[in-house]
Task: inverse folding
């Protein structure tokens, strides 16, 4: 299951994302926001990150104006590795090398077609493991995870 969320800036893209996930046959849970009315991105970033941290979601996708605020919020959570990806290349490497489990992007930064490629790549690229496993363990060992 993929947990998805946005603030008002990302709301329209989140609606498009739901269509894309349906097309890809991916199950998802929409954690809001549910309209384009102004809200605070941490409220939604925390919800999605909690799903991933608790293991109730395999992955998360967060959209705000830039993707940056959402990534800062999500990376506060245990076992979450959130990456802002603005290209399919970044999405591929965030999965292959960083085993990123939360994808963030900005609706004010990239067009929808690019965002759709980013999502497809993020969901289809496996983690490479090997030397990258040791590096990821070092990320989380700092906080005793
Ligand atoms: C909202 O205006 C904007 O600040 C927010 O969507 C996001 O870009 C924050 O990182």
Result:
């Amino acid at each position: 299951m993929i947990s998805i969320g946005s603030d008002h800036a990302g709301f329209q893209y989140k609606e498009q994302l739901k269509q894309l996930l349906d097309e890809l046959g991916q199950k998802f849970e929409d954690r809001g926001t549910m309209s384009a009315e102004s809200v605070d991105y941490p409220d939604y970033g925390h919800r999605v990150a909690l799903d991933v941290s608790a293991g109730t979601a395999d992955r998360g996708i967060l959209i705000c104006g830039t993707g940056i605020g959402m990534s800062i919020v999500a990376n506060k959570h245990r076992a979450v590795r959130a990456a802002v990806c603005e290209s399919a290349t970044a999405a591929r490497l965030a999965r292959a090398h960083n085993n990123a489990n939360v994808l963030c992007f900005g609706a004010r930064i990239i067009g929808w077609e690019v965002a759709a490629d980013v999502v497809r790549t993020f969901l289809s690229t496996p983690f490479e493991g090997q030397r990258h496993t040791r590096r990821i363990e070092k990320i989380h060992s700092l906080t005793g995870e």
